[in-house]
Amino acid sequence: MRSPHSLLPLPALLAAAVATLFAQTGQAPLPRIVQRDSRYALLVDGAPYLVLGAQVNNSSAWPAMLPKVWPAIEYIQANTVEIPVYWEQFEPEPDRFDYSTVDMLLSQAREHHVRLVLLWFGTWKNGSSHYMPLWMKRDPQRYPRLIGANGRRVDSPSPHAAATLAADKHALAGLMRHLKASDSRRTVIMVQVENEAGAYGSVRDYSAEAQKSFAGPVPPELLAALHKAASPTASWSAVFGADADEFFHAWSVAHFVGQVAAAGKAEYALPLYANAALRDPLKPGPPSTYESGGPTDNVIPIWKAAAPALDLLAPDIYQIDPARYLRALELYSRADNPLFVPETGNLPAGARFFFAALGHGAIGYAPFGIDYTGFSNAPLGAARMNEESLAPFALNYKLIGPMMREIASLNFEGKLQTAIEDNGEKEKHSQTLEFGPWKAVVSYGLPQFGPGNNPKGNAEPVGRALIAQLADNQFLAAGFFCRVDFQMIDAASGKQREFLRVDEGGYQGGAFKAIRIWSGDQTDWGLNFSSAPQVLRVTLGTY
Ligand code: DGJ
Predict the structure, then answer these.
(1) How many helices (H) does the chain have, and how many strands (E)?
(2) Which of 90, 201, 233, 255 is deepest in the core (most CB within 10 A)?
(3) Which residue owns the Cα nearest ligand 1 atom 6?
(4) Whose CA is nearest to atom 11 of ligand 1?
């Protein structure tokens, strides 16, 4: 017998199923990450979900600041807010947890109809330990910083400090236990463990503890994970040569973070991740020039082996050069790693990279510094945070927000491709995406009316397009500041493209609803996208 829900489209079905489950058990399904071939989806309420995120500034998660956070979140139309939980606030005295701020975040997020990704600012924050509680800062012998090669202390916590590890495990476990008890609606969908762990100022720790481990054997599980045929007693230097210092620190930090993550996950099994301060994706210098020990691209396999409780390793991408941005996306979208961009610069020219992230299968993305507290991290981001600087990001979410479930599903099924405008080289003003016998040609800088032989690029490189295959000859197309056309790949066949029907519309309750058919000037020169958020369902034929 068909269930009474089986005639409803997918999101309506989903909402009904979640409501039934919630009524029966008082619990929505746990968010989780699933894999199909080398693609991933983040399931929230049991179905693929795309994090249209916004990360607040570092010191904006205090109750007094929240009124300056929500207007920016509403303006950008994010569906998920990434917001810190400060260890110093959460555990003001040893083993006394203060849940008041977390509870306020949960209730205000629900009022604003957004989900949360909580950022655990624990032992590491950008390589230092500035969010440790006062009682830890006052006891640097017990919770030590690392020692550089010259014997001087470096402003970065030692991953070899047993007391720090125990305290961090205890605190994150306390946070996760509280979430489990107070968030049956799954307002929190993921937790970031630490923030950009690693060290600036020394490639590794040279404390007595660290020296002892460094002289000892490489852990067998790491040798096995890296397929290294080395003697079980071989030292770090013997196995890794010039990389030994960096790889040792990566293993040590990852092992620490992995144990903290495992302690949290044992309480409440939400997806967990760690974020990376990247090294230059095209020309990485020596490890002394970037944050050593964090999940930089060259040590992803070490982190995977050392921290299996983490579901993914995520790049914080502040590059504005497209070649570097795209390379960073490539490096972190791996068969063994779901792509998630938890931080990216909020410079308006960077908004198009959201499409690039989708094209690499991202489960989510979040520009950084989204609130009206008056802080700007220029030159990484815009000089002023206001509606004008946020407008290009708001446009992205306005377009994708109403169909984020469908986009996440199409991506999971491997049916979605994207294009973004490059920074001005002539040959890149037109790009081609291939779908079986069809190719979609995306061009930048053409007028909306007239032939398209010589695209010159937009005055600023803001063009972006998304094409998804719905059926053999049917596509979803959306974008800004570009022209999209379709051609048969096999030109020799002599078959020419015909737009059988181009519907403009959008998804409502899981089904595409058309509001008009495009034809005449709107299709005679291809499909021209301006600054208007428009979604097209394109049905193709040939003549
Ligand atoms: C990356 C860090 O993860 C963020 O918390 C922040 O410090 C930015 N850098 C810079 O604004």
Answers:
(1) 16, 23
(2) 90
(3) 58
(4) 377
Q: What is the pTM of this model?
A: 0.95
Nearest to 440 by CA among 412, 413, 469: 469
Residues 144 and 132: their CA atoms lie apart, in Å, by 11
In terms of Cβ atoms closer than 10 Å to its own Cβ (0-12, 13-18, 19+), residue 367 is: buried
Q: What is the pLDDT of residues 28-82, one digit of tens each?
A: 999 999 999 999 999 999 999 999 999 999 999 999 999 999 999 999 999 999 9
Nearest to 368 by CA among 321, 311, 314, 307: 314
Give pLDDT tens digits for 227-243. Answer: 999 899 999 999 999 99
Separation between Cα atoms, residue 9 and residue 243, nearest integer Å: 54
Tokens 């410079």 locate to: 347
Cis peptide before 220 (omega within 30 of 0): no
Asked if residue 196 has its Cβ within 6 Å of ligand 1, the reply is yes
| CB 206 within 8 Å of CB 154 | no
For ligand 1, is residue 316 a contact (CB within 6 Å)? yes
Residue appearing with tokens 């398209």: 452
Ligand 1 atom at minimal distance to the Cα of residue 195: 3
- Other Cβ atoms closer than 10 A to 479: 27
Q: Which strand ranges, in their side-by-side order, compose the sheet holding 497-508?
A: 416-420, 464-471, 474-480, 535-542, 497-508, 511-518
Q: Is the CB of 292 under 6 A from ligand 1?
A: no
Cβ proximity of 13 and 510 under 8 Å: yes
Is the distance from CB of 307 to CB of 254 less than 8 angstroms? yes
Please report, as a single letter, which amino acid is at residue 486: F
Most distant CA atoms of the chain, gap in Å: 79
Q: How many CA atoms lie within 13 A of 240 on its CB side?
A: 23
Alpha carbon distance 487, 472 (integer Å): 14
Whether ligand 1 lies within 6 angstroms of the CB of 82 is answered as no
Q: How far apart are CA 534 and CA 514, in angstroms?
A: 11
Dihedral (CA of 74, 78, 81, 82) sign: negative
Residue 18, Cβ neighbours under 10 Å: how many? Answer: 19
Instruction: Please calculate the CA angle 535-539-543 and round it to the nearest 5 degrees.
Output: 140
CA 316 to ligand 1 centroid distance, Å: 8
Sheet holding 430-435, edge to edge: 430-435, 438-443, 482-488, 527-529
Residue 382 in this model has a pLDDT that exceeds 90? yes
Strands 312-317 and 272-277: what pairing? Answer: parallel
Binding site membership of 343 for ligand 1 (Cβ less than 6 Å): yes
User: What atom in ligand 1 is closest to the CA of residue 275?
Assistant: 3
CA distance linking residue 176 with residue 188, whole number of Å: 10
Closest residue by Cα to residue 207 from 251, 138, 154, 247 = 154
Give the CA count within 13 Å in the CB-facing half-sphere of 245: 14
